[in-house]
Every structure is written in structure tokens, then in C-alpha cells.
Amino acid sequence: MVSIKDIAKQAGMSPSTVSRVVNGKKHVNSAKREQILKLIEKTGYVPNKAARSMVLKRTSTVGIVIPDTFNIFQRELFSIIERNLESFGYYTLFFFVKFEDMSEENCLAKLKGEQPDGIIMIHEVKNAAFYDYLAAAGIPVVTSTFNYPGIFSIHVNEEQASMEAVNHLLQLGHRKILMISGDGFTFGRQRADGFFQALAAADVPWADDRVVFVRHYTAEFGMYGMRELLLRNRDFTALFAATDELAIGAVRALRDEGIRVPEDVSVMGFDDIDISNYISPRLTTIRQPIKEIGEQTALVMHRFLSRSDLPGSGKEQILPHRLIIRESTAALAR
Amino acid sequence: MVSIKDIAKQAGMSPSTVSRVVNGKKHVNSAKREQILKLIEKTGYVPNKAARSMVLKRTSTVGIVIPDTFNIFQRELFSIIERNLESFGYYTLFFFVKFEDMSEENCLAKLKGEQPDGIIMIHEVKNAAFYDYLAAAGIPVVTSTFNYPGIFSIHVNEEQASMEAVNHLLQLGHRKILMISGDGFTFGRQRADGFFQALAAADVPWADDRVVFVRHYTAEFGMYGMRELLLRNRDFTALFAATDELAIGAVRALRDEGIRVPEDVSVMGFDDIDISNYISPRLTTIRQPIKEIGEQTALVMHRFLSRSDLPGSGKEQILPHRLIIRESTAALAR
DNA sequence: ATGAAAGCGCTAACAT
DNA sequence: ATGTTAGCGCTTTCAT
User: Fold this and answer.
1) CA distance B152 to B131
2) CATH number, domain at B186?
3) CB 3.0 to 4.6 Å from B272: which of A150, B207, B287, B319, for a disulfide?
4) How close does chain A come to B265, measured CA to CA in Å?
């Protein structure tokens, strides 16, 4: 591995001069600069990140905390964040939190060793010690797609969005509406809350057994959830699933019972993942402004880190969602 | 940030002793060891990775090169690899290659700075300089899901798998079979080759315009590809898509024209991504042994790195695929 | 068994 | 404008 010393020696100059060139500092004779640049090109020299971090006491790295089982929506989100972070000159480090005991602790230990300059959380870690450590260590944190007290958060208004989803169903004439959500994260509860609120606002009587909370927000669990609901009571005409993947699984379970979507039952999703526009029926859903969320997340982090401009007065940024009406919902027959 | 010196000072010992304890070396008085361990626990000390890498000249980090636009199959794969790598004690670093000029160079530069101990490639980088650098730098490389001359590769037999897919269609009585593949990567060409070979072996006449190569292996491009094919010639009864996502998009395009799957046209996918078993119709596809591929990839890398056991004589490991028959294919209606 | 000292590659203060 | 020096946190000889 060619080091700064090698370059210096070959150029007959000191390491400092080379360092100045590498970092684009002023006060270097332009002829020498040229020469060094040429040498760098020739040798393929690239500064050693570890060495640099050590003296600078920063790593130029942003950690992204994300569930090991990230869904398609999260996958798209972190791609966008990564891209934007890169454009600001940061490296990205992923911390995958697994669905296991100790995984959060594990992740925290890793994080301590890696010392990222900032942390973006796309996953809601349960252990408060996690946030406490970050706060104590003075590491800037931004949460994306959920909010955590005291932390800068970028997300949509989940309740509001859910209410709109349910209102869409209500406007279509549906009254007997079911919901599948998850109990894992705050957004699952928020989306369920929006569901309850919308129903209450419309004076639609509603019973406890019309909602089921499953363990994961996947198609597989959507199918299980729907089967459970089907077992309980078959008198319904619409379903609101807390994520598109859940919706896809639910549609599967419905079809397996010979129930047609949307002719017999309307189904709403949430997230508008890529595939939702291609499957049959195309899913009616709520779209989160994923691009904006990703861009804002990276931008806010950059501001924290560069201190060029502290994020606005507030502690959260709420971005607008949008109802996307497609084929999986229809007016109540008759 | 608490350092090894802090611990040493508090314990009234030297940094060397602390280092020995941290690294579980012998030759430390067990009472002192206890005391230090307690102190580490208390202070939450975690060794600084950068400092350690610098003296050790290794980072305990494995880089994973993956396309920015990774599909669901790749997402699952790298999750598995990451998990397994972690169990061997490695950190994982992701290098996302974007679909842009210079992105590979960019990625290579990053890689040089990060100095991972090994590289796992899930993405087939085009630029030979990439592989050349890795070889010259003596960094072990393992390619997963594709093979590259001279590099240890773990993958299925793509041609063979495609032939089986096509044979399934042939056995169902189909003769007029179309294909959608991509031109981006080797596997796209290999899967197309398998298609041609199977047709040739069965003496099925075939024309050039029955295959289309699209730019990305996504549902969106599957839809475009199918539309193109539909424009050319509507006389066909089956389609083989090089990935499940392509297949999903193709089914969309077919349906938009009122063509039923599988009643009018049978559709085969490849990869068996999660969602394929939930959508309608459930996709008939080829399953890659994703878990085994991921585990083997991590294991082979570990062997390279620990030198405990060099990977077997060969340079590749071919894992068995499997035909998964579901609902999107059916016997040719008379 | 333990400590002192050197050095990994780099940057920044300080000289010149 | 450029070089010299110290030091970031760690591990590893080499003494003792």
C-alpha cells in the first residue's frame, strides 16, 4: 500500500506538502502541486481512512441503523440516503439490527468501536440506552420515518395518512372495515390509531376483533393475519393493511378463500412500494415521499455535521403523503 | 471517548496489560485481569477500530460490492452473508455501485481508502481494472451468484437452470415461447443461453425477435419488455422471464392487454423472491439456494482470511437450484 | 507477568 | 511556501 511518505520521497518533498495537496489546502507551489498530483495518479495513492480518522477525531462516516429484515420501502429509502450522504462526502456504514435479543446491544458496541460522526435511524431501537449513549457521546442523531422524543425526526403524519386511507374506504361506502397492523414499531400503532380515529369520526361502530396485530410487516404475516381475521368474522367489505407487503399477503389469503378483490372486498395498503403498481390488482395505497424523506434526512445530518446551518427551530420535519388510488379498492356493491 | 490509557491509569497498570486483557492474551495475572474487565464494563470501553486497524494492518472488515439497485433476491442474499460474516467476527462494509459512469472507479477509490481485508462481489463490475487492483493488492475476492475467471465463485448453474425452466414449459406442450432477459450482467446472457439451448435440444424452431433484452431486471422493465414483444408478434403461448421481477412486470403488461395468465399464456420467473408466492398468480420459478449461497460465500471468505483452511482445489462451487411449480404456468390448451 | 518504547499513516501546529 | 515534530489509540517487540 502506497503511503503519503512514499509519495513524499518520490517527489523529494515532505509528507506535509503532500498532505496539503491531497487535502486541497492553499500555500503550495503550483508546480509542486502538479508534480504531486501526477505522482498520486501514477501510484494510485489513496489516503488511509483509519489513519486520517485517528488524527482528525472524526470518521466522515454516518451510520445507518436499519432492521435486518428491512422491507422494500426501507431498502429504497436507505439507497436514497446513502446516495445523498455520498454527495456530501460521507461514508455510510450500516448497522443491521436483528430480530434477536442482544442484537441492539451488539449493534451499540459495534457503533462505539466504529465511531461514526452521526447516526441515522431507520429502525426504531427499543432500548433507551441506545439513545442515551448517543446523546451522552454527543453524536448527532436523525430518525427517519419515525420520531423519538428529543431527536430530530423526519417522517409523515402517520395518523393523518391512515385516516385518509380509511376515509377513502368510507367514501366508497364501506363500513365494515378490518385492519391488519403490526405491534413491533410505533408506526404500526400510529397507523392503527388513525384507523380508529377515522372510524370514530365517521361514527362507524367498530369491534375489537376487527383488528389484528402481527409480528412482521411482511406478505407472509399479512396472509396469516387475514386468515385469523377470516376465522373470526366473515362479515366485512374492506381491509386496511398497515403496509403494502401486508396487503399483498392479505389479498393472497382472501383469494385462497375465493374472495375477490376488489369486487367482494376492497384492500388498502400503505407505503407504495415498487411492486404495488404491477401486481394484480394494482394496490391502492398511501405514498410516502420517499425521495424527499431520504434527501431531507441526509441534508439534516449534513447540517448537523458541518454545523454550517443547524436544522430549523423544530425537532421534526413532517413531509406530505399522498393517497394513490388504483384497483384494489372499489365502491361498495349495491 | 474512553481509551486504553484511561483504563490503564485508573487501574494503575500499563496500557500493554490492558491491551492483553482486551485481546484475551495469556500472561496476565488473573486478579488484574478481573479488575480490568470490571473497569471496562464500568466505563463502557470499546477499542477504537481505526487505531487497531492501523497497527494490525488489517481491518477485520469484509467489503460487499452490490448494485445500488439491488433486487429482492440480492437483498436477502446480502443479509445472510452479513449475518454469517458477523458470526465469524468480521465487520461488513457495503460498496454500492451505482448505475452511472465513474461509479465503479469511485467505488474502487473508496475501497482503497477503507482497505477491507476481503471483498465479496454480488455485483458484476464491468471494469477489469477493478479485479486487477484487488488481485495486485492481494485482497481475497469471492464472487457470489456469478463467476469471474480466476476468482473463487459461488453460484448455481445458470444455463442448466434455465434449460430446466424451459423444459418445464416444453413439457406443458408450449412451443411458441418468448423470453425477456437483461443485457447488463453475465447471468442475463447465461439464462438466455439456457433458453436457446433448451429450445434447440427440443428442435423447436425459434426466431430472433422472440427474445428481448431490457436494461434493468425490474418489474418496470419487465412490463416494457413484454409490451415490446407484444408489438412484434402475438403468436405465443409462454414466456420465460430472467427474473421474478421481470416476470411480474410482464404479467402486468399481458393483463393490460386482456391476456390471462396462465390460461392464455404461461409465465416462468427465476429467483423465487419472497413475494412470488403471494401474488396472483403465484409464480412458477427457479429457486436459487440463497441461504446456502450466502453461507458458503461467508465461509469461503473466512477461510481465505483465516488461512485456517484454503478453499478446495477448484475455483468455483456450484450449488443446486430447484424448479418451483406454482400457478403461472399451465398445460397448453389444445 | 508487566512495563517502556516504537511505530502504523496521517494532519496540524510550529518553525523557518 | 515548506519542512519538522508531535501525537491520535492501539499492539507488539523487547526488556526486566
Assistant:
1) 12
2) 3.40.50.2300
3) B287
4) 16
